Request: fold
Amino acid sequence: MNHFLKRTAGSVFFGLMLMSAVSVRAAIDDLGLADIRGGAMGGADSAMVTGASAVKVNPAALGFMSRSNSNDRVDNQQLSEQYVGWSFLDVGAEASFTGDLGAYLEQLGGIDFSRYELGSLGNVDNVRSLIEIAGALGNINEQDTIIVGASASTTMQIGHFGTGFRVFGQIGGWINDLDLLNLGLNMAASQIADELQSAAQMEGIGGGTYIRSILTPDQQAALSSALSSAAAGDAVDYIDAKLQQLVDEGKIDQNQVSAAVDTLRQTIEASGGVSGYLSDNQTSITGRGFFAAEIPISYGYAFNDNFSIGLTAKAIFGQVYGTQVWAFNDDNENILQDSLDSSKGSVSFGLDAAMMYRIPKFQFALTGYNLNKPSFDGYTQEVTVNGTPTQITVPDVTLDPQITFGAAWIPVRRFALTTDYDLLKTGTLLRGYDVQRLAFGSELDLSIIQLRLGTYKNIAESDIGWVLTGGLGFQAWALSFDLGAAVSIDDTVEYDGVNYPRTAMVQLAIGLDF
Reply:
């Protein structure tokens, strides 16, 4: 009978893992801030989790806690001595920029449409601004995003059981529905050429003496054709000169010049008509948000000194938020307020399952999170854009399932090397942006102080490289205090003239273990 129960339990666990492996991607990843100790180790602690953190990270570890061993050599972390644990505060926040969203928002947010009336392009600042706008609109894609997450929890372990309370949230945004039709200025193409020629003459550019350095022959011909004027030659010279200055100043990257020129050409071609002006542009920014509060109940069962399984069932209340604001609309403040008032809440249930195997100096784990894909209802909202009713659809939010394999080498009690590998890609609130982590970590326990170091990479995407993590733990009898942080290595994004890490994280925790 005992053999039958063991075989049945193992089959159930593998079945749960398989169910999640064939599921489709959804809309949020909620594992990035799961545990401060693991976060400081690159997120690689599923195979050596301790204390109340097992509720969130690996409930199978609960099976080994407060349990007598017939072979103490396999108890690498002295889990048998952990009877009661309480992580009564664990908080964290993280943010990531992908692409160049910060720079594009800064450019689009500074648009003054009064600059682009007849007679305005004699001002060099207006010309530079126009080219920057063309560069932004021409290069924006769905990979230019921002995502911010936060988490706070309290968890308790008593013997083989665990419970707690956790709140977490994630917001993301991206520039959406890029409008490359309404790009015209309130003047004819020939008038644009004349004004650019006048500006060029004032700066001593053109007149057949200027040597173009940025524009290719095909780009020069396309702009000349769009300008359709005897002044086109000097105007193209002037555009080339301003592009070169913007590249030299870092306002436009050399690789972005082609899209900037194409967009500028479309702007000129659309100018002077009765519609299609830049002020009518429908380029919009989409925002998505999700907030959740969950109560987990965990249990771990060890079949012997080596092998344990664990389950966590979670009741989850989720609140879905969404908005869409138009880059050139005057009603955005009201839209944002309406979006906050129109959010929708619903209740769902989540299931985690885990296995843990240990031998002297080595431990292995296989953990599945959100295996049943808990989902939360979206909604539709009607907003007004420049006096026109428009409907926004905010989709359902689903917590993607994830299966993580972990391993730890613990040659001595106070030192460990770890690794975690996510077997699946999980979605985020960002459109088309997934997460799949490969992580490495280490911990050196100096009795009172624990030193932690690690690194991880999202191997599902190529925009952000390796992220360096680190942290400190302080242990005074039963009281513990932990700090952790992470920052992308040599990878920054510029906003308002300041370079920020493309991804960053901070965490803090206080707990008790008996």
